[in-house]
Amino acid sequence: MSSSRQIQSRVSWFYPLIVFLSTATHGFCATVGTFANPLIADGADPWVICKDGTNYYYTQTTGGQVTIRSSSTISGLAFASPVTVFTPPAPNNRDVWAPELHFLNGNWYIYFAADDGNNANHRIYAAEADTADPQGTYTFKGKVADSSNDYWAIDPTVLQKDDGSLYLIWSGWPGTSNVRQNIYIAPMSNPWTISGPRVLLSTPTLNWEIYPDTSLPLINEGPEALKRDGKIFIVYSANKAWENYYCLGLLMNTNGDVLNTDAWVKYPAPVLSGFADESGAVYGPGHCSFTHNTAQTEDWIVYHAAKYSGAGFNRSVRAQPFTWNLNATPFFGQPIPTNLPVIFPAGEGPPTPFSVNPNITNGFIRLEYFCAITGTSLADVTNNVKFPGHADITRFAAQCESPSGIGSNYGSRLSGYLMPTVTGSYVFYFCSSDQGALFLSTNSDPVGNRLIAFEPQWNPRRNWTGTDRRPNQENISAPISLTAGQSYWMEALMKTESGGDNLGVAWQPPGGSVPTNGAPPIPGACLAIPFDSTLTVSPVIAQQPTNQVRYQGTAGSFSTLPVSSEAPWLQWQKEIASNNWENITGGYSNSFVLPNVSMSDAGGYRLVVKNNAGLTVSGSASLEVLNLPFLIGKFTAGKGAFQIGFEGVTNFTYTLLGTTNFHDWAMLSSTNGVNGPATFSDTNAAVIPNRAYRLSIGQ
Q1: Predicted local distance difference test score (pLDDT) of residue 2
Q2: What whole-number percentage of the chain has pLDDT above 70?
Q3: What's the whole-model pTM score?
Q4: Active-site amino acid positions
Q5: CATH 1.10.630.10: does it fit domain 31-343?
Q6: Non-local CB neighbours of 171 within 8 Å, separated by 6+ positions
Q7: Are 17 and 575 in contact (CB under 8 A)?
Q8: Which strand (E) or helix (H) includes residue 304?
């Protein structure tokens, strides 16, 4: 287990905390109660609103019209069908970018940017809903512009202050030339009319807003307003959208006068940026929106990021919760990579309710190992006396994949029910070594099994679409029609001889994208196994969960070894009072992850395991949550020393790093074994201008 946190500050910044979260690999996969990013495989400029704690409404750039999806859960947006609600009239009906849906003064409004095919003519437009249904029809209200500064404008959003006053915020050119995109604000007399001149709020000047490609245009764009406890913030996107260095910056209003440029302070470091380390990689996070869960107890950020390094405008949409620092500024942490789960918002579950069939257990697929079998052919397994009913080891996987790199000369089988959540055409992608086969029945009966994909020779783990290993793609199925809510028996087999062992199944759901190499397999939310009512032995927990110490915002996790009986029912619980335990929504597997712990998560945790023969409870493990380390930046007369202070904890390693470009970081100091207050100092702070600092904390 390991985790790390990175904290950044500039010496000229006097607010106490700017933080970036970095978590190392935990090895846990998405299961019941979690989903995996990307939320939507193809998309950019996402906008989500959850009004009155009911449905989420979602829109994104389509290029030609405005579409809106609706779902009662945030994860369900991935499966919701987009409804076209508005198509702009000619001539400005081209390049429709970054639509947003707002509820203002009792009505729904859509804002978007569009042009006539000439990018220089991009302007902002509005439409008003004809009914109370945000997915209904809309009436075009026309261009929304500052008539005295009617220049190129995109990415509109609306701020409504607590007094009801309205303000349009957007990204625009200062004049007629494409040399710089700034953030502007202007007052509004109604939801479709600007009533005063624009005011400049931000222009790209800092290294991380410009580096490394300093060619024109320089860019600040995608502004989004965020309010809390009387404070007003604007989160914006900086750097070039097609580069890995695209990131989010933050403006904070200091006195409530949003039309006064001097009342806005820019954070000197990005508040959400890409990374690549042992926990995964996310490139170019930007153009976000904010919402809350349906219970209105959690804040969430939805943003787009590059699908891979150097992907340019090939982007996907991500979602994750965020919290607030002690100084009431937002803390977004670090983008959660695709290999770590994101727990459903409180009060929400999977997109489609699980089956209530008492004869199945949702969230798992059976994983069987047939050991000490030589050869590379599937026939070496299927012709062995152990197959199919005498596996050496039986376990349960929380996604459609077996662990890789665990041994040689064995066969494995994944088997269970596939339970699609959307009706339509699916394509399956299969990986195995050295030889493997994927079978799918036409219903829940294994008798109907038919071969849908085959791996004739070794295929690397999660190499769903790669062709370097052979010219053909037998590992990809033909399109298969499936019905939501129905159960389909599925089996995946593999035989490995030495090295590279892996077995997994991914899919392309209706309306979804082809899984990229490295994408996660089919999640446990769409899997189930038969419940074995003949068992006579209660489950046994092979390894107890252990105590954890974590900083706020890092990932906390508890795990046990797989239980030793078949078809278990598992439930993680939290101790809310002495010997008073409460079930945790989403805690239904051997492992439980809190990707972004807060002080309220501190306490005891345990796992309850049950089958037909009895119930077993694990020992209790505690989660201790530490306050975020604090940063102190100051100059001492004649010395120019910069200090970072922190409260050290045994078993953590603390490293001070410095940079002048937010790209190349150099280690300045490092220590471990600290237990109590400690500081790092940089005595060269005065002679190295504009140096930024990062405190990396790892375990």
Answers
A1: 36
A2: 83
A3: 0.60
A4: 45, 221
A5: no
A6: 153, 154, 155, 181, 182, 183, 184, 219, 220, 221, 222, 223, 236
A7: no
A8: strand 299-306
